[in-house]
Design brief:
With about 250 residues, the chain is an alpha+beta fold. The protein is about 45% helix and about 20% strand. Strands 1, 2, 3, 4, 5, 6 and 7 form a seven-stranded antiparallel β-sheet that branches.
């Protein structure tokens, strides 16, 4: 309505400026959101495209898409574990801190479970596949991370409620003043609507804090916890393996 009003009154410069600013804000929010999603998903950005499958006691390189549950794959030193599975032969040392938080590599032998995207530091093993594709542990984590940027904080929800509540009065006032004063006055009233500004600023502030935290190697999976942190006075760790740096208690 603002754009239409400024065009009708031939305020083309105002039209251009308003359109530019509105679209610039939307572009910045989309870029910030895209960066946040890439940053979160990039935690597990190393992918495997081919695997060594065991066929008649021979190792055959095959695309990972051809692997089914209960197939046996072979993993070697320096490789990424391609899929979730259970070791049926051999012993390996695995770095799986990205999944479990363990600060040191873990020894795994027959009967132990291994997870996709973890790194084989040393050893050689046969692995019977238990999960493939989107059912692997790392894929499920990525799906959670992908959805986090869509969550709204309480501040965002409150801001949008205020913006929605203000829309009708501003619209009514603009329609009322337009015939009494002039179309320019009505358009100016329409332009006072805080809706877009509130939506963009509330979304941007959450994304900015998530990105800033990522620069300190802190992964925030849900923007809503930023508000909840204000009420936290105690942190409980479930096992010592999750503490990779020394903290003073």
């Amino acid at each position: 309505m603002v754009v239409t009003g400024t065009l009708v009154t031939q305020n083309f410069l105002v039209t251009a400026a308003y359109t530019f600013i509105a679209n610039l804000g939307s572009v910045l929010v989309r870029k910030s959101k895209g960066y946040s999603e890439e940053m979160l998903q990039g935690v597990f950005n190393r992918k495997v495209t081919t695997v060594w499958m065991l066929r008649d006691n021979a190792e055959i390189e095959s695309p990972i898409e051809e692997v089914d549950i209960d197939d046996v794959i072979v993993i070697h030193t320096g490789e990424l574990v391609p899929l979730d599975g259970v070791i049926t032969k051999g012993t390996i040392t695995v770095d799986q801190h990205m999944l479990t938080g363990e600060s040191v590599p873990v020894e795994k032998g027959v009967g132990d479970q291994v997870f996709a995207s973890t790194v084989v530091i040393a050893g050689y093993a046969w692995v019977k596949v238990t999960e493939t594709g989107q059912n692997t542990a790392v894929a499920k984590i990525e799906n959670v991370l992908q959805s986090t940027s869509h969550f709204m904080t309480g501040l965002q929800l409150t801001g949008e409620k205020w913006a929605d509540a203000a829309a009708a009065p501003i619209l009514g006032l603009g329609v009322f003043l337009a015939p009494l004063q002039c179309l320019g006055v009505g358009t100016a009233v329409f332009n006072t609507s805080p809706g877009n500004g509130i939506r963009m600023s509330a979304s941007a502030q959450t994304l900015v804090h998530i990105i800033l935290a990522s620069h300190e190697s802190i992964l925030i999976k849900d923007g809503r916890v930023l508000e909840q942190l204000m009420g936290v006075d105690t942190i409980v760790f479930d096992k010592t393996g999750t503490l990779t740096e020394e903290w003073i208690v």
